[in-house]
Amino acid sequence: MNSSDIKKNIFKLIKTVLNLQYNVVEDDLNENLPEWDSLKQLSIVFALEEEFDIKLKNDEIEKCTNYYEVCNIVIKKINE
Description:
Layout: H1 3-17, H2 38-52, H3 58-63, H4 67-78
Helix pairs in contact: 1-2, 1-4
């Protein structure tokens, strides 16, 4: 799976976890979304770990605050 595919899957996953019904683009997921609270952040992390068969460390989980950070962390983790 290449980086582009990974990013697309992450985008879909985040959109699903946050239950975003409106048209959203990647840049929207880097704003402070009211839907993206600490509980949803953990839900996103659990979904990522299951989807990509990875295990994130506590410091990585703390950094999962927006789409681009999540992409960077997951791609790095997959390539380890």
